[in-house]
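FORM 7B - TANDEM STRUCTURE REPORT

SECTION 1: FIRST PROTEIN
SEQUENCE AND TOKENS:
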Amino acid sequence: MATDYQHSIRRRALEILGEQESDVGDQLYRTLRLLARYRSTLVANTLFARGGDKVRSGPFAGLAVPRQSAEGCLAPKVLGTYESELHPVIEHVAARGYRTVVNIGSAEGYYAVGLALRLPQATIRAYDIDDNARRMTRELAEHHGVGDRVVVGGEFAHADFQALDPETSFVFCDIEGAEVDLIDPSRAPNLARLDMLVELHNLPDIPTYQRFMARFRDSHRLAVIEAGSRDIRAFPELRDLEHLDQLLAFWEWRRGPTPWLMMSAIRS
């Protein structure tokens, strides 16, 4: 018997296809994305059923993944392939031993709680403007026994950067395009001294990001991190799935390239 969620997906697909004023190609594309996102949640449910809710691989292996996401995909997080191009950065942050990590745009706490487990000496400050995301982060932190070290907040402001010690702090920022306004040393001078990892969005407007990176060329060593490949063969539990489902197990729901910018402050 179909669930209410399945019925809602079907209704939405029919609504898109029935839009009289829309381009047919655009209708088909939006319907494909809708159905692919739905199918990817079924793949995630299969992974939960087969191996539980623990991350299978990568620097956060063993982290419990909430069975609902505050934002975006689930299956890659369960597999541990989510943003796997950042795994070396996570290892660097853990080895560097920062005392404070600020996670701006924390969603359900995947990075905030994962980093709390990797840095037992650190306080993780997790910020998200979504109430549900903050609730999920608190619950995940409590589940893993790090609720005392994961401090959850709402909107992060320019003035908040000024309270961070550049020698012991790291900033991890993923805020869907708002980074251009927030990560601005003219409004928060302490940014010129902080180590940061920032996801870049809205890349069709390339000049915007050239100007963004220019802000830090004199104060930081800059490294752009592009998306990497994924290896289906590394996960035996995927081998009996249809090839489309195998691909969806790695799909991160992105509409286009969202590279990361690693910014390491140049210290005298």
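SECTION 2: SECOND PROTEIN
SEQUENCE AND TOKENS:
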Amino acid sequence: MPGRRPAPPAFAGEAARHPNLHAAALRYLKQIALRGSVRKAAQALNVAPSAVNRQLLKVEQDLGVKLFDRLPDGMRPTPAGEVMLRHIGDTLSDYDRLLGEIDGLRGIRSGHVRIVALDSLLVDFLPRVLDDFSRRYPAITFSVLAMAPAAVFNEIISAQADIGLTFVAPASPAVRLVTSVRMPLGAVMSPQHRLARRKRLDFSDFEDTPVLMQHGTLPVVPFIDDDFAAFRATMQPRFVSNSIELLRHIIRAELGVAFFTRLGFLREIAAGDLVWIPLASPRLEQLRLGLFTPSLRTLAPATSMVVSELTERFAQLERDA
């Protein structure tokens, strides 16, 4: 009828009922969950704690539920909070992708790319790739975190990462394998070590050799040789560390042998400062390093560009091998 106002969009009622569910509030809630307190969240966001607490209280009041339990050792999400955090992960990921797509339409090569990878890849391989890429596209920013092999999949599924680099293994349908390269596990040692001239090594060769172990980085169980699992379970390593840099120093000091792929030691192996020898294990020889992305989310333009770059680098690794 003439003079009648058009009906509001279907989501207008929800927006009116929950006016605080905007980007800033969602980022505040995400940081509270990550840091475990309002104060630490405020420090990470560079805002006043009162602002973070005010947003939390407003959202809880609007929704009519508690999102966090205030415990002596920090703040923990309630069941309603867990649901909210899943929504936050999807919403912020979609928002970042939207910004990237709009930038792409304007011809601006920008955006933020979140990568999780095995620790050894952050030593040499990824720094080379990102150095070259960043020189060509300086407006693209990155978050790059080291993760244990299985944890990489969880980060992609939970929308905390856009790209994952880890050993190929059965994964959730929410994760897509883009490409892979054969990357066997071998023994890394000083060229002066008594085993350094061998072409291949059995686990029995290490009985009288001090060994080093990187904490928490065993590849996914279905792809691990039973003999290696038994060897690892019974051996008493001389050093255990979650720092590949410390283990690198210990190897070069001839204090032991460690078990890695070649990727964490490319420069030293090429220069002859370290030696990498494959292990006589069919399963370990067939280990593959995979490039994974989410299968249920459209990649932002910046992420797609990085995936293309990494795909080419994987192909180069295959050719070099």
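SECTION 3: OBSERVATIONS ON SECOND PROTEIN
The longest strand covers residues 175-182.
Residues 1-21 have pLDDT under 50 and may be disordered.

SECTION 4: SIGNATURE
Preparer initials: ____
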